[in-house]
Structures are given as C-alpha cells and as structure tokens.
Amino acid sequence: MSKPNDLVQGTLDLLLLKILALEPLHGWAISLRLKLISGDVLQVSEGSLYPALHKLEQEGWITAEWKQTENNRRAKFYSLTRLGKKQLESEAANWQRLSSAISQVIRLEEA
Amino acid sequence: MRPQHWLYTIPLRLRSLFRLRHVEQELSEELQFHLEHKIEEGIARGLSPKEARSAALRAMGGLEQRKEEIRDLRHIRWLTDFFDDARFALRSLRRTPGLTAFVAITLALGIGMTSATFSMVDGLIFRPYPVPHPGNVVTLVSTTHDSPFDSFSYREYLDIRDKTNSYAGVVANADMEAVGFSAEPGTTPRIKGGMMVSGNYFHALGVEPRLGRGFREDEDQVPGRDPVVVLGPDFWRHEFAGDETVLGKTILLNGTKFTVIGVAPDRFPGMLTFGYPDFYVPLAMAPVFTTNLQKNFFVDRDDRELSVKARLKPGTTLERARNELAVLAKNFEREYPNSNRSRGAAVYTQFQARTIEDENWKFGVIFLILALAVLLVACTNVAGLLLSRSRARAREIAVRLALGAGRFRLIRLLLTESLILATFGGLAGITIGYGVVEWFHSKQSIVFATELPMAIPFHMDKRVLLACVALSVLSALLCGLAPALQSTRVDLVNALKSADVDVPGRKRLWGRNMLVVAQVSMSLMLLTASFLMARGFQHDLMEGHGFTKDHLLMTRFDPRLIQYNAAQTQQFYKLLAERMRETPGVQSEALTQNVPLGDDDFDGVAFVPEGFQMPPDRANFNSTMDTIDEGYFETMGIPILRGRAFLPSDTAEAPRVAIVNEHFAKHYWPGGDAVGKHIHLDSSAGTPVEIVGIAQTIKSQNMGNLTDFVYMPLAQHPVARMVLMLHSNGDALQLVQPVKDVVRSLDSNLPMLQTRAYQDFYLNQAVRGPRIAIDLVGSMGLVGLLLAVAGLYGLVAYNVARRTREIGIRIALGAASPNVLRLVLGKGLVLVGIGTVVGLAMGFALEQLMNSMLFDSGGVDILAYAIVVPTMFLVTVLAAYIPARRATKIAPTQALRYE
To answer: Which residues are bridge partners to B183 per DSSP?
Structure first.
C-alpha cells in the first residue's frame, strides 16, 4: 500500500476544499465534478479520494452528513466548515505563490 | 491543534471510540455507494456486469486496503489498536491457561513482596506528616558529642519559640506516656497513652479539630491552671462511642479532673511514627504526669523531655533557619554554661529526622532491596517464558509481517500481551501485598510489649497502590520488550518454511542465557541474605547475656498514676520489697527501673570522674544507668566482681553511692581499681558519688554492643516507675497471685502493669521479634530459589524439545547416554556456574551492606556461604538434570517422526 506523496496530497486537499466550497457533495459526485471541471485532465484515483476526504474530516475542515440523493439513496454528503474556509484561503494563496514562482522560472529564455 | 478544531474533531474521535461498529458500517456503506456507481458507469460504457465490477474494484485499489488506510487516518488509531490487541492477547492467553496462571503468579509474588516492603519504607521514612503543607514542617533537635538527636527542656523551648524569626509556629511535645484514665470517678484507672503538647500545637500544625477546638495559647501559660484535654479520634470512638456530647465532659487522668474541649480529626492520628496518642494535654499540666522526679520540669534547663517541631515561614530557607538556631545554641552555651556546654542545635527535614532518629528504616531498605531482587527474578522468568512462547508463534508473526504489518505495530501487539499479564500479576500482587502487611500487623503484640497505643505504620494506602501500578507497568516492559524485539527480527523466508525457526546462531540464545545467569545469581543472593540475617540475629542472641532469665516474674508499677507524691512512692516500694521478701515461694526480690533487653530507653547519667581534667569542649561524660534496690544483683544472678552490692544502709541520708559495671571501670580506670573512687554528678563541682562495687558486664540492650553502665540505689535516686522482679522457687507464674495480694494490701487502686514471666518477655524481644525479619527474608529467599529452579527447568526442557530431532539422530547414530547428557546439560551447567560466581559477588556485597547498616558483626561469614552455595548448586543442577535425562530416553524413531 502506497501513500500519496506530499505534494500530490496537498494539491488534492486544495481541490477538494474548493469543490466543496461551491456546494456540498458526496464522494462519487466529487470525483465526477473534478473530471468535469478540469476537462478530464484531473482524474483522481479512487484510491486517494476517500482517504483524503476522511483526513480532511479528521482535521475539522469539512464535515459530513448522511442525506438522501435525488435517486432516494443514502449517501454521505461533505460540506466545508468555517475553519475549512480559512484553510482553503491559505492553501489557495500558497498555490498561487508556488505556481507563479514556477511560471517565472519556465518563462526564462533559453540561451 | 487550535481550540476551535476541537469542536469538530472531538465528537469525531469519541464517535470512533464508542460507536465503532456504527462508524465502520458507515465507511462500508460509503465505499459501497461509490463502487456501485462505478460499476454502473462501466456497464454504461459497454462492459459486462462482471467485467464492470472487477474493473471498478481494480480502480479503487481494493476495498479492504482503502478501508485500512482510512482507519489509519483516524487519530485515535493507537487507542482502538490497543483495544484490539488486548482482546487478541486475552484470547491467546486463555488458550494456554497454565502458562498464563504461572506467569501471573510469578509476577504477583514479585510485585506483592515489593509493594509490601515499599509500604514499610513509606511508613518509616517517606509518608508525609498528616498536616496541611507537610513539606515545611521541620524538626529541631539538640545535639551533643554523644547524640545527634536529643530533646529540649521547657525553658529552651520557650526561648526557641520566642527568640527566632524563621518560623510561623514552633510546637513542642513530650513523649507519649502511660496515663491512668477513668471516665468516672471511683472506677479503677486504665492505662492509656497520653501526650503533653504546647498550647499552639493544633493551631500551628494546621489541624482542625473534628469537634470542639484545640488548645488556646493562654491555656498553656500557668502551670496547673487549665486542665483541658483533646481526645484522639480512635480513643473517642472506642471510649465514648463517637458520642458528640463528649464536649465539656470531665474525665480523670492520673486522678486529676480534666475537661474535654475537643476531638482530633480522623486524618490526624498523630505526628509519631509508631504511636497514636489517645489524648493530648497542655504542657502546663506537666505536674500531673510523670516527668523526671529529680528535676523541675518548668525550671531546669537540663530536664530535656521535649521534641520540638516548627513550620518554616514562607520564603525562609532551611539554611537560614539552621544558622539562626546555631547562633541561639551558642547563646545558650554562653548564658547557661552548666546545662549547655558544647551543646549545639540542628534543624532537620522530615527525611533527615526519620532516618537519624532510629535505625528501623534500615531494615525496611534492606527488605526492599531483597524484594526487588525477587521481582527481578520473576521478571526474568517471565521474559524467558515469553521468549519461548514467541518462538512457538514464529510462524504467526512471520505471516503478519508478510501481510504488511509494521515491526513497530507487532511490537505493540506483543507488549500489550505482556501488559495484560502484568496487570493480572499486579492485581494478584496487591492481594499478596495486603496479606504480607496484615501478617505484620498480626505480629504487633510481639513487637510492642506495652499497653500504649502503638501500631506498625505499614499500610497499603494510595501511595503504595500507585507504586504497585508503576511496578506492574515496569515489569511488563522488562519482561516483554526483549522477547518482542527479538521475535520480530525474523527472517521471513525461513520462518514460513519450517516449523522449527531456530537457526543455530550464537547471538540468538545470548539473551536467554543472560536470563538464566541473572536468575541464578539473584536467588543465590536472596538465599545468602536470609542466611546472613538468621545468623546475624543468632549471633546477637548467642552472646550470652550474663544474667538469669528463667524463674523470673516481672511486673511494673507507676504510683503516679494514682497521684502518689514522691514520699508515698518511696514508702510504697519499701513496703512492697519487704513484704515480697517474706512471701513464701519467693527466693529473692528486686526492683529496677528498666529490665535488661527491654524496649525502654535507659536513663542516662552525666558525670565527671574524680580527678579527671575535662577537655574544654566537654562538661561531662555520659553513661547509661539504672535505678535498682539491694536485691537486684542477687535476683538477676549478676556477680559482683569487686566491692559490694547496695545495702539497706545506703539510705537517702547516707553518702551517695553507685555501682558500675566492669566495662565502665576498665574505661575510666584501666590500670587501677574503681572501687573507692568518686564520680561527680553533672560537673566537676557536682555531688560526689562513691563507687562501692563493680558488677559483671551484662548485655542490657538488644542489637547493641556492650557499654558502660552505672547503677544507683532507689533510696538515693528516687524514681516513680519501677519493675518488680521476683525469683521464684518454682514456676514464675505461681507468684502472680501472691504479688496481687500484697499489692492489694498496700493499695487496692494501684494497677499492676505488664505482669508476665521474664522468660516470655525475653523470648518476644530477643527471639520472636527477630524471627519476623528472618521469616520475611527467608520466604523471599525461598521464592527466589523456586523461581530460579523453575526457570532453569524450563530452559533445559525447552532446549530438549527444540532439539529432539537432532538428539534422536545422534542416538540413532550411536551416541551413548552420557554424551547426550553432556550435550544437553553442558550449557546449562556452565550458566549455573557463571550465575553462582556472580551471585557470590552480589551476596558478598550485600553482606557488607548489612554489616554496615544492621549487625556490625564485621568480617565475612564463611559458614553461610559454605551452606548456601552448594545447596543452591545442587538444587539447580537437579532442575537441569531431570529434563536432560528425558533427552537420553528419546526413541530415535519417534524423534525423527516429530515435526
């Protein structure tokens, strides 16, 4: 059993938090939403999705509730907490800083 | 974690703990939901249901692994793991009930003995005073050349109280003493233990009475004015049935009316280690109670009867208090040279006070060390057993490791098992501890030969129980860690292949061998200790005390209990001696203040030998003394070597005389004759006393060396409390009724105390008392030996079982029995040999320790070793031989079939 490396895990957290900031969803819907929004580029392996969701729950950034879906089946819906919102903001800011730094380096002209 | 987090996370964790099944169910449901959607998606893309399902499962990477990953993320994982491990451990332990029971009992013995001896050390040294903030209560003592722990006089106490700045309160108390108590006038007084204390005693110590109040300062001002008494809690319950209307009641103490003004609370049984006063009275009432008849309690600065304690002021250091008191002592020396020459003063913490005052604590420490040795043997035994057990489970462990369990996780599992075992052992150990402490309590009457409320202060209280718990955890780690570490360092391939995991490697058995050596050496040390202790006491006994012990009846009197004054007391004793001499059946009578080998502290006498030039820092010499009458030496069978015994002519009007023992005579007049010389009392200008006889030196104190001794006649040195000794023509107890008759004819109110045959008393003091210690140490030695034997037997038997196939082959190939024996036994004997050598060294070290602390017999006791070592060796060799012999009987065909 392999654990996702830190960079990927951190990014995944950010994505999940953002998606849940838009509206509460259950696990399957989250994976669909991710694929949809990113145009199939980001495919989260099921292996990393649920552990990541549970970790976010343990940290107190998201909270879960069992509700009925449109098909009248029971599912666990996750939603962002107030703390999660703050975490999202800080992680988003980090990501901006990181990606712009990388962009700077990439943009350098080759000699 | 920031506090806001907790709002979310704590309910989560609690849920994982207490509603685990529910949480697990939800997890399955959630993953199942996802799986089903994935399958639907697969079907929609054109796969068959079966293909869709396997594709979905593959995509999810296996449901169980995902669940396990998620479980790992739960922050309380370690706790749920612990519960799982514990449950598993309990199941596997239940499968081997014999082993579990043996381990539990082994640990119980070790933990039980250690906790019992810990209760001893706690009761004797560490238990804090039963007052608020006991840490800043200190003990003040007077110090001299001869004694680091002397009492103060009343005047000295007042000066200390008034002239020092370091203390928030200075209290004083006299020794607990026998007091005649009557609840109603006209009834015969009974002996109870009372204690005189200063007026500020309860207040300064911070003791709130349960009923009524403590003393007021003004109640301790004027001698004899305020007859008030505070009752001890147990006494109040026994005598007054816990009646709350006891306040204001009048009781008689030594014939004087006292008013009850308060009852001490349960949590204050007193400040003494062994005594629990029945009641407290103010120092000002001293004239009612027995104090030194030669001196005036309130005036004489050298009438030293008070123990002083004080509370340090907050912010004052011990150093400062010590300096201040030293300066005060110097002032006393200057202002009162007659009473305070070369006397210092010291301030002791509780620990210092308890360890300097007497020697009992040393026994406690020795016992504790021995008990820890037993515990160590027990733990090594258990460790060995667990090692064998884990070898047997090697396959199971290998499988776990192969399935991906981390090594640390496995170690946790194995440690949990030893923790469970240690818990069983600990609980049983507490029971054993209680048993041992109760056994001590049952022996109380042997140790304390008195009517006073004295008790053995060992209890299995909170602190001791806490120590038990800590010991259990420690033992668990000791026993379990090494086997756990070793068994998880397994070569997977080999382990999974064959049942026999042991690859013959030098390193592997090293741990086990060390255990055996440790066991053998520890139990050798324990056996040596019990032997040494028995011999030490016996040595003490055998020294031949130098006086008659049989046919003697003894009984104590204290006429002050019925308020006799000095003249009445003297008259009583004179008549008593006369009448007893004339009684048929009495060969001779004697009166003495203290019996030899008794519990009581002998009086001391300060003197300057005639013609001696005292060194500048000493005012006088000291010697132990006894007050006796003319019949003493004859009755006790002590020969007078030179000069004479006391005569009826040595009256109060005649010149003062004394008799000294040979030790004293040789000490001060080594070449010449002490008879005819004089000693001056207290100082070179003091009353001259002529030495008229030299008596043979007898052993007057238990466990001590022979010392100087001075005897003075009762007529010239009046004392209130005396013991009547009667030498009977027949059995000593025949004389009890005649004595009663004579006493009744003199005064029917006077109680006779501690009437018994001296032989009995002596046996208690000199034999039965030490026997308690010997029994305790002996049982520890025996337990240690049994454990070591069991351990060795187990090791050899295990070896045989392990190498059955190999031995079978050897026998099939023609090996003879002796060769097989040598093969199996060889290693074991070497280990026993090493263990014996180490044990000898430890035993030797222990003997030096015991000599320095207890017996002072000096030198090495060869006989002890000569007996213990071969015995030990023989027993352990036997333990190894029995299973080894079985090895020779192995039928090769059976052995080869074994798998």
So the answer is: none
